[in-house]
Every structure is written in C-alpha cells, then in structure tokens.
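User: Show me an example of a complex going from sequences to structure tokens.

Assistant: Sure. Here are the input components:
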Amino acid sequence: MQKRLLTASLCLSCLVLFSFTALAGSPTGQARSKAPSFAIVLASFGSTDAEAQKVQDAFLQAARERYAPTPVYMGFTARIVMKKLQEQGKDAPSLFRILAELGDQGYDHIAVQSMQVITGAEFEGVKQIATAQEGLPKGFKRVVVGDPLVASNEQAAELAHALIASLPKERKSGEPVIFIGHGAEGRGGLSYPALNWHLQILDPMLFISTVEGAPSMDDTLIALPAPEGKKLRVWLAPLLALAGEHARNDIFGADPDSWKSMLTAKGYECMNIEKALLSLPAVRELWFAHLDEALLSLGYEKK
Amino acid sequence: MQKRLLTASLCLSCLVLFSFTALAGSPTGQARSKAPSFAIVLASFGSTDAEAQKVQDAFLQAARERYAPTPVYMGFTARIVMKKLQEQGKDAPSLFRILAELGDQGYDHIAVQSMQVITGAEFEGVKQIATAQEGLPKGFKRVVVGDPLVASNEQAAELAHALIASLPKERKSGEPVIFIGHGAEGRGGLSYPALNWHLQILDPMLFISTVEGAPSMDDTLIALPAPEGKKLRVWLAPLLALAGEHARNDIFGADPDSWKSMLTAKGYECMNIEKALLSLPAVRELWFAHLDEALLSLGYEKK
Amino acid sequence: MQKRLLTASLCLSCLVLFSFTALAGSPTGQARSKAPSFAIVLASFGSTDAEAQKVQDAFLQAARERYAPTPVYMGFTARIVMKKLQEQGKDAPSLFRILAELGDQGYDHIAVQSMQVITGAEFEGVKQIATAQEGLPKGFKRVVVGDPLVASNEQAAELAHALIASLPKERKSGEPVIFIGHGAEGRGGLSYPALNWHLQILDPMLFISTVEGAPSMDDTLIALPAPEGKKLRVWLAPLLALAGEHARNDIFGADPDSWKSMLTAKGYECMNIEKALLSLPAVRELWFAHLDEALLSLGYEKK
Amino acid sequence: MQKRLLTASLCLSCLVLFSFTALAGSPTGQARSKAPSFAIVLASFGSTDAEAQKVQDAFLQAARERYAPTPVYMGFTARIVMKKLQEQGKDAPSLFRILAELGDQGYDHIAVQSMQVITGAEFEGVKQIATAQEGLPKGFKRVVVGDPLVASNEQAAELAHALIASLPKERKSGEPVIFIGHGAEGRGGLSYPALNWHLQILDPMLFISTVEGAPSMDDTLIALPAPEGKKLRVWLAPLLALAGEHARNDIFGADPDSWKSMLTAKGYECMNIEKALLSLPAVRELWFAHLDEALLSLGYEKK
C-alpha cells in the first residue's frame, strides 16, 4: 500500500519535470489546466544611434503601458548593434536570448512583434527564430509573430493613409514627398513599388524610393515633376523604422550623392522630414494593431 | 572465416536497404558515389478547360524537348481539376503523387517548377509539399523549387518587358492595355500593384488589375483615361498562366459585370487579347529561366 | 450585385482549391466539416522469397477482412525487394508512393503500421517518411504510425507470452529454444537483450540471439546448457517478421556456420521452427493491437 | 562613383546583419570563413540535494579542465530544480537559456552532452531543444547532442564493465549487487532489462532494477538467491546520475517499502553503495567519451 504512495510521489516529480508550469506556482498543482501566461517581445534590428535608441525606448515604454501588466521586452537581431550597445554597458539581448529568459521565467504564450517595415529577409529571420521555439518540451506552448508594417495590400493602404496623416502642415498640396526605404532583394522587395502605388492613388505627388533596389533614386528622379527653373520644394522622409545612419547620411547627408545633395543639384529645394516611422503616432498605431492581432490569435484578453 | 563472409553478405543487404540507388542498377555497387539522377516536375493548378489544357500540354512538350533526356512531368495542385481530368480518363497526378512515382523510379535530384504567377498561397503550398520530401530515408537527396513568374523586382521588370514584347501589333501607342490577374491575400497580393509600377515606368498606358484584391477594377477604371466621347480602344489581357473560366467569364464574358461589359458600358471599345501567359513565348522563356536556375542549384548540367 | 455573386463564385473555387475534401464529393459543399476518411498502410521491408510473400499477402488479406471497408495497402521500404517484385510483374509501391496514391484518392486520416520487430533504423525511416506527409497543404490531416512489435517493456512481455504460446507441442519443458533476430545498431539493438530478459523470467530455457549484434551466437552458446554427451534437443526459431534468406541460410542452412550446423557440431540435436513471426497467430494479434491503437488515436471507429 | 561606395557600405552593414560572426571580432571582416567557435553544454535534470549538487559541480569542474579553454556550462531541464536553485540565489539556467547566452557570446558550434542514463523521454527532450536551435538565422551553425550513458549494446557493455570496476573492494564474489534506476516508459524502458543482461553475462550476481517499470523490485526479489537462514549480504547501488531523493528515500530510506527495508525484512543484510554514477570515475569517463565523440563530429580539435 505504501509502495503505491511512493510510486505516486515519484510520478508527481515526473509530472513536474514535464510540466512547464510549476514555476508559476499553481497552488493546486493542477499544472495541466494552468491559465496561459503571456509575454510580448518586440523584435528589432536596433540602432547604434543615440537618438534612434531614444525613439525605440519610447516605443517600448508605450508598449509597456499599453499592455501592462503583461511584460514587454525588446529582442535585437543585429549582431553589430548588440555588440555596440553592450560596449556602452547596456543589456541588449538577442531575440533568441530574451525568449529564453522569458521561458525561464515561466511564460508560455509569446507574441513576437516584428518591428520591420516589410516582409524581407530580416522578417523571415525573426519568424524562423520565434517559431523554432514553439512546442519544445517544457517550453512555450505557443509563439505568434505579428506582421511587420506592410504584409498585405490592406496594410499597405493603411500605411499610405498613416503617412499622409503624418505629413507636416507646411507641405503644400502638389509638392512632392519622397519616402526613402532600405530596399530588399527577393519577394520582399516588391513591397516598395506596391506601396508606391498605394500612395499614388491617394496623392500622385507621394513617392516611395529605396537606397538599394526598386524604385531606385533614378526611377524617382524620372517620375518627379521637373523644377523647370521655378522653385519646387521636395520633401524627403525616411521610410525606416528608425532614423539612424541611413537617414542621416544617405538621405539628409552633405555627401554629394545623398538624396538631398542630388536633388538640390537638380534645382529642387529640399525639405527634411527627419522623423522615422517609429516616431509617427499614426504609424506606431499600425504596429500596435498588428501586435493586437497576434495577441488575439494567442487567446490574450486585455485586463 | 565463413562466418565473416556471412556477416558481410548480411551487411550488403543492409546497405542496399538504406541506399536509394540500387534501383538505378549501378554495376559496381558503389551506391554512395552514384551520379545524381535528375527529374523535373511542373507544379500547376491545372485547368478543366480543353483549350487551356492544350496550352499546358504544349508547354510540357516544350519542356520535354528542352531538357531531354531528363524526364519532365506535370503535378497538379487543384483537387477539382484532378477529379475532372480523371473523369475524362486522363491521369492527372497530384504534385505529391508524381514526386512519389519519380522516387520509386530512382530519381534523387528533383526540380519542381512553380507554374504560378506570383508567390501567393498556392506557391507556398507547392514549396511546402516539395521540400517536405527532401532528405527522407531512401528518398530524394535534393528538391529545389523554381520561382513563379514574379518573386522579385528583377523578375517583375523582366515580366513587364515580356508582356510588352508580346503585345499585338494592332495595339497603338497610347491605347490602354489592362492585364487582369487573380489577386491574392497577404503578402503575395503586393505583387500586383508592384507589377503595375514596373509596367508603367515602361509605358504609362499599361495597367495591372485583379479579379479579387488590389488593384481592383474600380482602381483601374479611375486610372484609365476617360473616353470623353471619342472612341478609345482598351485592350484586355489575362494575367493568368492559363485562360480558363476566369478569362472567359470574368474578363471577356457577356455577363454585365465582366471587364469587357463594364468597359463597353463606359464607352470604351474593348479589344481581346485572349492568350494567357503560358501561350506567350516571351513569358514561357521566363518560366524556363527560373527552372534553369533551379536546375543549376541542383548541380544539373545540360547534356 | 452580380459583381458580388461573381466574387462569390471565385471564392468557391479557391475554397475548393485549398480544401482537400472536394474529391470525396460532399453534396452539401461543407468541406470543412467532412467526416474523416481513413486508410491503412502496412509498412514492410518486404521479401523476395515466394513463401514469405505468401505469408505477407495472407496478413494483408487478414487485415483487409478485419478493417473492411477501410482500405488496407502494403508499402515497401526495401528498394531491392521492390525492384525484384516489379521484375516479376507485381506492383510493389514504396511507402511514399502508396501514401501519395491514397492522398490522390481523397483519404485524409492514415494509420501506418510498422511491420518491423523492433524500433531500429528501419522503423525510424518509416516514421520519418510517414510523418513528413502530415499536415501538408491539401494533404493528409493526420498520419499516425503504429508501434513495431516491441517498443516498450509491456510490449516485450506480451511478445514473450505470444512466443511461448506459439511453441510447438513437441517441445518439452527444459529444452532450449533460441529465437534468432536480425540485430541492430544503436538504441534499437537494446531490444534484443531486453527481450531475452522478458523471456527468461517466464522460462529460463528460452533465448534471444541475433545474426549481428547482441546477444551474439557466442553469447548464446555460452548460456546454453551443455549437451554433456546426452542428447539435448535445441529448438531454433526465426525472430523475424518473414522467413526469407536469413532464416533459410543463417539459421537452418547447410552451411557450416549456420546456427543449425554450429549447434549440431557441438552435439545438440536441432529442431526447426520454420514459421516466422507473421505466421504465428498470437504474434499477428500483437501487430493488430498496435494498429488498433494507432487507429484509436486517429479517432477511428470500427464499423 | 561615390554612389557605388555608398552602396558598398550599406551592403557591409547587411553582411554584418546576417553574419553571426561579427561578434567574434574578425579583424579582416572575412566573416564567412571564420574559424568555428566551440562551446559545451552539459544538459542535466539537476538536483535539489546539496550533496548531489556538489557532485555535479565537481563534474562540471572536471569538464572545464578537460576541455579548457573551450567554455563548458550546465543547462538544466527540471523546472522544479531550477526554481529551488534560484531561491537559493544560484543561477540555474535552462538548457534553452544557456544555449541562448552562448549564442549571444558568439559561439556557433555547440556540443550538448546529455547527462541522462538512458534514451528516455528526458533525453528526447534534450535532443529536441538542442537541435531546434541549429541553423537558425544568425544562430548556431551546428549543434550536436552526445549520447546518454546507454544508447547501444556497446555502450551498455561499457557501462557494465565500468560498474564492475567501481564495486567496493568489500563486496565478495557471489554477493548480489542491485543497481536501482528510475525506470522509463516506452522504448527507453527497454534499456534496463538490456543492461541487466549485459551485467549478468559478466557476473550473474549483478542485477538491474527500477523504481518504476521493469525489472521491478518484485522481479529482482524473485531472481535473487534466497538467504535461507544464512546471512546473505546484498549490495544496493543507485543507477542514477545523481544520488538525490530517489536514492535517499526509495533505496536507502527507513521507510518500510524502501529497497533496504524490504530486503532486510526478507532476511538479507543490506550494504549501501551510496555513490551515484556521476561520482564514479570509470562512469564519468564514459560520459566524457560520448562528449568527445560529439565534439569530433563537430570538427573540434583539442588544443
């Protein structure tokens, strides 16, 4: 009879072993029916630029307030950014590591929000890392990845509206605005000309261009109305999550082949819109909306 | 001593068991170093339309001539198409089944060429089915999937050029041409407005539209120059691999909400370009180019 | 309004595309809630021996009667067996191909029963091939693999009882019986000494031995009681699914290093039990029991 | 021209992004050909017992000395152990988290050594967690998992020899020794009767038994020689990596259904061998040998 009790106590320790949930300290020991325990990770390339980091920290803070008491963390994907942040004494965990830490803390339903703009190689990497962790023994029960800014025509249309809503009041109707993104190889690269189309059916003087890829600077120069001796103001804006070196150098830089220099040389008057996408409240709402959708598919209910 | 021989003969049968290559009858028995044995599968949705089937069969025939003596087969993905073809007494294997038959025949390096137009859900399915078969015990050593028509900006530009090169001589400069595709949800849907951009930087009177999705018929009607009482010819063409029911009904049909009826009602004169993409030699070359690339990455060398 | 209808009809064809179930011809079109459609595949190494094939065919026939009207097929895993059967004009599909054919016929819940004896490399291959097919687009909803004969201590004990129940009446208590299996590398090889233990706690004169591996012939010779001049009968039986060349040559053969020759030379009187495991009703029931369990986990109910 | 340089610098940042190796600070920037960077993780269930922890720490220390300067860490798999260790202020990372930390430090070739005894569910979990991390973007290039103590007949034979070599000198020939393991469901459970066989062909008075499963305590009691009034010493030893609660209570405990109490009640004189497997130098060498093999397959060369 006591033998049986002994066996039962052994079984209990085996149960604990395979049940992830012991950590969360269910007082009844009913590990299997424990409520899901949610956490959020913002997966970002990151930036070594101090101003860009502030913008990102502000977004993280906004996310924490929005989803409190659910914990929200940042997980980085760029080795070089993590290295530089660590040299500055900051803890900059990779996406992999922050997921592992949340696992050790007992969270079992994870929403990973892609802070990317398009569904390029960087987003594929985030998805691959995040989903590899789903369903492992004693690990996460579910991991869902929220869409980047533009992963469908509906989202492209929403971004187009948000970009227009974010234009400075000083920009007059008819003045060209060029949103300059990074560009991408493969299928993700199609997002840029697609977004260009979505913008132009709303306002034909809005353009998407890229640092690498299509539409190229040359494509955009051809599409722009010529200044023809008159003063034509052209607005330049980053189509980047964060305004780091790409924005400062390639778009607004003093270098003769920056967008600004090239356009100025062709007779345009360049106006800077220095805020990147994560600084625009209307665009931030889109990322939050994608995160809301990811959380919804996890079965999350806002407290 | 004989014991040792016995053991050796047993080991041989085990070797044969795990070596896929015995079938191909290597006379030396050096199974491990056997030359790769290549086969090609064209993965197509298929069509129940007799004319469309002829076009598809002609493409299959062209592929067989181009890659002879490497075997080329068609594998279907639409259950309804396979069912109807089978009712007509034709063998219409699924992609899964034709792969299995090639496996039983001893082929171990397989190129699966997607006959899709864009990287939508249908293409994702082809890729998932094909790659699940790679590396299984006694199965394919490698399976590579060739891109559909448009999986990057470079390919979109190539398709734009091929579409222009395929226009009928009767189409005069300045006359609108609308290429009408299926449309897609999610990220694949972005291919259509992207392709619209690639066409319009070459000729602003070329338009992409879709049966479902963006650009919609309404989007395209707004973008078209108005007929303004004058006779304005508009050319309608399917942006579909095969011209089946979608082409016959939705584009050219007599129904009042077909493209043709709608445009005619608005005062345009509609001209039909009934050939679908698989009937256009310039476009067929693009599919072949993607297949060539897939074969190249398999280590295939044309005999 | 008609536009909406048109769109609906398009959506229907998309539904059909992604719904595997259209083939089964649900008259109501409620593809998603279609009842599961079951099929069974017996995954066997196969044999080139005519007698062994008859035994296997009889087992297949018994399975068909037992599970009618659910279809039951054989899928082979040995290339060399398939090749020889095909040369004899028989259709000997690989496991991969028979699965693909069942998929094309519209079955979506598949039980694959391993006809292996232990959980060795051959069983791992069956499991890998079978489970790679689960959940593919338009493919099987579920694939479950039934255990081989011995995949746990409980199953080893059941096999021990079944082997004892299958002993010929002529075998007298105290006479040694040696069941000779193939042997295996890696963890699967541990099944043989484990099974030896399970047999010997029931009858210490029952032995497991292997052609390659442990317990070896030498191990078994040491463990046998010595004949010591007296006539000691030893019974030899294959621990193989089918009695093919291994049984005929390695166990019962005239060759001086067959089990029979070796034991005879040492003064034992050898008695042949030529029936392999698939010929023993008590053992066949164990394979069926594992298949029943696989079907149960698929949600199958016997009609 | 400068445009080209600009593009080049952008490409560089992209390279860095996808190249895991930047962290390791290759001065030439030839990220692709960087030498592999090795690390070792010992994957252990862990123990909450202070003495067992010392044994484990000693093994970790021995591993660090043996493989220096390659870093060696412990990763735990039991939630309850990690929780208790953390309550004691110790850092007890899960296998998942220690892997993630090594990833963040730039290691790309990882050997995970299973500290399990057999290939049961616990080992399967270790393998699944470890291999899920292989080949992720910017992650580990290769992860190899070393065998637990017994994953083949060869390893079982080696363990049998090591156990015999580790017996106390006081144990006289003919005195039974019972090695008591945890037991396991499924195929892993077959390891115990298999190991019993390997021990008994060396010394028929050595027995394997389990807390749960086969051979059970009852099986072993039947197999033991009866004391028959005489004083018969029986040696009890844990077949556990660490001697924690199972050893203290189930084997040596004062409780009437511990092994010791049961055997004493039956008239045996019980002798304790309290050292668990990780305390036996000959057995530790076997774990190291499996780790050496894992490292070898990673291409590791001892410095």
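The lines above are the inputs; the final block is the predicted structure for all four components together. Chain D touches chain A through 51 residues (CB under 8 Å).
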